[in-house]
Amino acid sequence: MHLYDLWFIAIAVLWIGYFFLEGFDFGVGVLTRFLARDERERRVMINTIGPVWDGNEVWFITAGGATFAAFPEWYATLFSGFYIPLLIILVALIFRAIAFDYRGKGHTDRWRANWDRAIFWGSLVPAFLWGVAFANIVRGVKLNENHDYVGSFWDLLNPYALLGGVVTLVLFTFHGAVFTALKTDGEIRARANRFSIGIGVAALVLAGVFLLWTLLHRSDGWTVVAAVLAAVFLAAAILVSLRVREGWAFLLSGLAIVFAVATLFLSLYPYVMPSTIAEASNSLTVQNASSTAKTLGIMTWVAGIFLPIVLIYQGWTYWVFRKRIHVDQIPAAEPATHPATS
Question: pTM for the whole thing?
């Protein structure tokens, strides 16, 4: 195995970790509009991800940095060709991050409602656009002989990519519902369990169609195995949710995301960005898009030293904040006031 193959696997693992962890963050953010009935319940939901959401985003930053260092051609083509959707994702993530801190700084209904909208849209938009982006990478885009993207923004909004966006949105929402049930107690826990069943069935149907479409486009033996496992784990998560076994349901929904993303990367290899114009000559592969062997070697040593430290720290964080949260543990907020009107 060459180092560029190893780093393709490493980047796939980073994205899998990001979607596993940030997936339930996005889901909880979306569900604040549907599961929470009042301010205290909304604060309960936000507190379930409050200690961990920023650590989960480190996986995205690391995946982007690893792509830049290991596959600079891929990074350049991706971030120039997908500039608009990636910019929208970054803006949404920034506003969501600000909203987590700022919603408690004011005491008016309008102030909280505006930041709650930022949390909702800052979760929904990336959850949808990440699916659109990765579906386009797997499907292929218009690259010329210089590996430059020559398509338009509207070319990215094709049926396959839009379905991919809907699938990630629904799948992350299911993951978030299961996580909410796992981390809360009382009425909101029961509500999350009920909601997870319906959204889980929708996720299973949509993901099944999308994965089948992917296999018809690009597939081999391992890709088929990964797709089947994704569907099996998702169906198992729904069945376990019916029995109110939140821990198992969360693990299984996470494994469904793991194997769904693995399906995309397996179907992509050895390409990192296929071209729909003369695929054999214009596409970016793990070989022609990679850095030098020396660069990849240095990166391998650095990753081997620091990755265990990061994993230990993040695991410790989840252990510390492992207990359920009940609405009775949330102190009553100061009475909301309405801005004076003339």
Answer: 0.91
Residue pair 20/230 in contact (Cβ under 8 Å)? The answer is no
Q: Give the separation between CA 295 and CA 69, rounded to whole angstroms.
A: 8
For the chain, what is the domain count? 1
Structure token digits, residue 222: 């391992």
H/E element, 271: strand 271-273
Dihedral sign from CA coordinates of 39, 186, 21, 236 = negative
Judge whether 336 lies within some domain.
no
Tell me how far apart the alpha carbons of residues 51 and 321 are, in angstroms, rounded to a whole number: 7
342 in any annotated domain: no
- Distance, in Å, from the CA atom of 212 to the CA atom of 149, rounded to the nearest integer, reads 27
Q: Are strands 271-273 and 284-285 parallel, antiparallel or unpaired?
A: antiparallel
Inter-residue contact 259 to 227 (CB < 8 Å): yes
Q: Does the residue 339 lie in any domain?
A: no
Exposed/middle/buried for 153, CB within 10 Å: 0-12, 13-18, 19+?
A: exposed
Q: What does the block give as tokens for 126?
A: 């990336």
337: in domain: no
Query: Range of 75's domain?
Result: 3-329
DSSP state of 35: T
> What is d(CA 72, CA 321) in angstroms, rounded to the nearest whole number?
38
Q: What is the pLDDT along the chain (342 residues), one digit of tens a residue?
A: 789 999 999 999 999 999 999 999 999 999 999 998 888 889 999 999 988 888 899 899 999 999 999 999 999 999 888 999 999 999 999 999 999 989 888 778 889 899 999 999 999 999 999 999 999 999 989 998 888 888 888 999 999 999 999 999 999 999 999 999 999 988 999 999 999 999 999 999 999 999 999 888 777 788 999 999 999 999 999 999 998 899 999 999 999 999 999 999 999 999 999 998 988 888 999 998 899 999 999 989 988 888 888 889 888 888 888 888 877 677 766 555 444 333
